[in-house]
Amino acid sequence: MSRTWKIFWAVVIGVPVVAFIAWALWDNTRLFAVTFLNGLTLGSLYFIVAAGFTLVFGLMRNVNLAHGSLYLLGGYLGFFVAQWTGWFTLALAAGFAAAALAGLLMQVTIFRFMQGQDLRQTMVTIALSIVIADLLMWGIGAQVHQLEPPAWLNGPLRGIPVINAYSSYRLALLPIGIAIGVALWLFLNRTRVGMMIRAGVDDRGMLAASGVNVNLVFAITFAIGAGLAGFGGVIGAVELSMVPGEDIRMLLASLVVVIVGGMGSVVGAAIGATILGLAETYGLAYAPTYSVVFTFVILVLVLAFRPRGILGRPA
Amino acid sequence: MSAADWRKAMNSGSGRAAMRVQGPVAVLPQEISFQFKNPLAARHVLVLLLVLTFPLFASPFFVYQIGAQSLALGLIALSLTFLGGYGGMVSLAQMTVAGIAGYLVAILGTSAVMEISMKWPWWVAVPFALAGATAAAAFIGWLSVRTEGIYTIMITLAMGVAFYYLCLQNYSIFNGFQGFQQVYAPSVAGINFREAEPFYYLALFWSLAGYFFIKYLLRTPFGIALQGIRDNPRRMNALGFNVTAHRVAAYAVAGAMAGVGGVLFTWYNNLVTPGSVGTSWMINVLVIAVLGGMRHPIGAFLGAIVFVLLQTFAIDMIDRERFNLVIGVVFLAIVLFSPDGLLGWWAGLKVKLTPRGGVR
Fold first, then answer.
1. What range defines the domain where residue B165 resides?
2. pTM for the complete prediction?
3. Number of folded domains in chain B?
């Protein structure tokens, strides 16, 4: 794209956005600021879930469309653990462990035998997501399960300029998301296993030839990716609530995030999740019946100009 | 997938070589010779007679609930078979396209929602609905062909789910959660297409038309180029074919067909709601196409019959609420053990039963 076109599109997209921000700030500063925080915290949840999706896809080219089901599984288990023990931290750990275990099981029993057949993997995971969703509905029922935030995060945080009060749990999601992002980045870029994973992304055959147990690396990555979905599930059980259908919503969010951000890139997932979270909450706040349209427009724009996503590399 | 493909996939170093969607392995030459050598085999006559006389010996329940529903769903699945099996692009948005046609018929035509429906006569509303579905499909295609292979399925899924949420949230055009009730098939020249038999024949006519159109299209230069693009897009590009244009055109053709199926399915249900374009139906279309097998256009209808029979009778045996579990397990079994669906299973059985393992 030539320089002129770049400027043209920057103006076409940028001017309405800037105009909207100016109008919204002038119209109702508090609403704008609260929506901004809501968007960021929702984006943080999206990032946690989508990071697992993109990790699995980036290394193994495994499209795990049962990712939403893992989210639901982790969320439900976290809910029950928190109810029995009263410990939120334990619920988080249980959600992570349950989803990681389920993911590991999927990798060992199914994906390992279908390496390279993406279409079949996709269909198997679709079938699995139908089965898991229905089993969960059978066992747990269709009613809404909402988890209480832990006592030390319950209630609003007061005294913030402009906004006055904001849910401290939601605000805490922001550092949690950032911490997970940084930890994931450090893990991938600074540890030995992370190095192997990155090598596997680039050239799986060469990695195997250099004596690395590729299957083990795959299993670890899959477990971490799936575990992040379960971890996100417990967080989402407080922020959103657990109910059949949430799996599809999270799957859609993960798909859009990785399509917008670029497959297999953790930083891309962070960018995509922020954009999606902001777009969704601003849409809901300012144009409730058309909020999905904004998500869709973003998807269209990104695909039209960067088909591989904002940070995507040619596959 | 053949053993050679397996080996190739297992050995491919980076996994990038295996990014291509695997369609049916070049069935074309045999199919042409088969078609011309033996245009009307006994089984074709038998099947045709069976479907034409079906209402004479079956009860109205069977004619409408099983027959007509299978045909309407089969037509939508056929559009996916064409796209996925012969174009190499597995789109999950075919039900979305069908739903767009259904919604347009309800919005432009008549329905219970007086404030929104524009009450155009059916012969204006239906062509507009089909044109709208085709345009929407071309748009979906234009977006998704920018990416390849497995990305297609994700992008079409994302767009389909986005449309579902739009229908669910929007009340001014799509009437939100309730959707449109009382969307009836019209009466033409004294024939009331709401009745079981006329509707069955209507669905049969369009299914046969769609089936033979696809059979014809696959042997035209366009169809052959499309299959070439499925097998090796780079080579076709080097040969001077416009890969993107062919793919978008394939989406448009499939969209028109899904649109016809969608209008029929809407008339069959007498309603269109967000539920009819939700993920479960989007996936059901894929289930139908895969269940029957994407090797041949007939697979779509075969899959639809099995699906509808399961939907109608299997739930009585287990639990009415557990239909998704049944269909999920059947789907899982099919993709795990017979990736080419019932047709592939049948072909494998034939090879096993033939003494010297004859090939076709």
1. 62-276
2. 0.81
3. 1
